[in-house]
Amino acid sequence: RKEVEQDPGPFNVPEGATVAFNCTYSNSASQSFFWYRQDCRKEPKLLMSVYSSGNEDGRFTAQLNRASQYISLLIRDSKLSDSATYLCVVNIPAGNMLTFGGGTRLMVKP
Amino acid sequence: IAGITQAPTSQILAAGRRMTLRCTQDMRHNAMYWYRQDLGLGLRLIHYSNTAGTTGKGEVPDGYSVSRANTDDFPLTLASAVPSQTSVYFCASSDGTTVFFGSGTQLSVL
């Protein structure tokens, strides 16, 4: 089992739609969680950190469920510019390393 | 502009040749990382360094070596390149909470 798993998609949604991605992680000792965005042939960039209480940044909402060991990302009112691959990232305490999920590809259509 | 610089941007290399990918950051981050990204496999950690003078093996270290003589530089060396090392390589650094990526090196081993 991979340490961090995501549905690779692609998720094809129309503009204005609400879309949600989930990510599961296997190491219960993980403490830090993030969503990164990666555009085609570009480097990943931090979208948002994920806090225990959940957090929101504009149209984006991130949630953490420690009991079930998953994090989620909700995007409301999708824009064409949201089209990208979204990477779930989990901190592995041993060695202080980040482990990346394989990414979920989102395509927002007009 | 502060950030991470990788060089070269792209390289075509004959199998069996030695190659060093360069990575420099000017943010004074202690932690630095090398990832490779392959279609369908996501980002995989090759080597990491939590501070100058120390390095560690990631998920896929075989065929690669790194050094961390100072805080700013973290070169990745392929001693004898093989076609399976064809990939996009990302260098990254971390301030302990956020990971910042370089723009990547596209390496093709023929």
Structural notes for this entry:
The complex is a heterodimer of chains A (110) and B (110). With 110 residues, chain A is mostly beta strands. In chain A, 0% of the residues lie in helices and 55% in strands. In chain A, the strands form 2 sheets. In chain A, strands 2, 4, 5, 9, 10 and 11 form a 6-stranded mixed β-sheet that branches. Chain A has a 5-stranded antiparallel β-sheet with strand order 1-3-8-7-6, with no helix packed on it. Helices cover 0% and strands 50% of the residues of chain B. Chain B has strands spanning 4-7, 10-13, 19-25, 31-38, 42-49, 56-57, 64-66, 76-78, 87-94, 99-101, 105-109. The chains are: A mainly beta (110), B mainly beta (110). Chain A binds chain B through residues 8, 32, 34, 41-46, 49, 87, 89, 95-103, and chain B through 31, 33, 35, 40-45, 48, 50, 56, 58, 88, 90, 94, 97-104.
Structural key phrases:
heterodimer; A: 110 residues; mainly beta; 6-stranded mixed beta sheet; 5-stranded antiparallel beta sheet; 11 strands; 55% strand; B: 110 residues; 7-stranded mixed beta sheet; 4-stranded antiparallel beta sheet; 0% helix; globular
Topology, element by element:
The complex is a heterodimer of chains A (110) and B (110).
Chain A: E1 4-6, E2 11-14, E3 19-25, E4 33-38, E5 45-50, E6 55-57, E7 60-65, E8 70-75, E9 84-92, E10 97-100, E11 104-109
Parallel strand pairs in A: 2-11
Antiparallel strand pairs in A: 1-3, 3-8, 4-5, 4-9, 6-7, 7-8, 9-10, 9-11
Chain B: E1 4-7, E2 10-13, E3 19-25, E4 31-38, E5 42-49, E6 56-57, E7 64-66, E8 76-78, E9 87-94, E10 99-101, E11 105-109
Parallel strand pairs in B: 2-11
Antiparallel strand pairs in B: 1-3, 3-8, 4-5, 4-9, 5-6, 7-8, 9-10, 9-11
Summarize the structure.
With 110 residues, chain A is an all-beta fold.
Mean pLDDT figure of chain B: 94
Strand content of chain B: over 45%
Give the helix/strand class of chain A. Answer: mainly beta
H/E element sequence of chain B? EEEEEEEEEEE
Low-confidence stretches of chain B: none
Number of strands of chain B: 11
Number of helices of chain B: 0
Largest interface: A-B, 21 and 24 residues
Quaternary? heterodimer
Query: Termini of chain B, distance in Å?
Result: 35 Å
What share of the residues of chain A does DSSP label as strand, in percent?
A: over 45%
Identify the overall geometry of chain A. globular
> Mean pLDDT of chain A, as a whole number?
91
Tell me the series of helices and strands of chain A, N- to C-terminal.
Answer: EEEEEEEEEEE
Give the helix level of chain A as a range of percent: under 10%
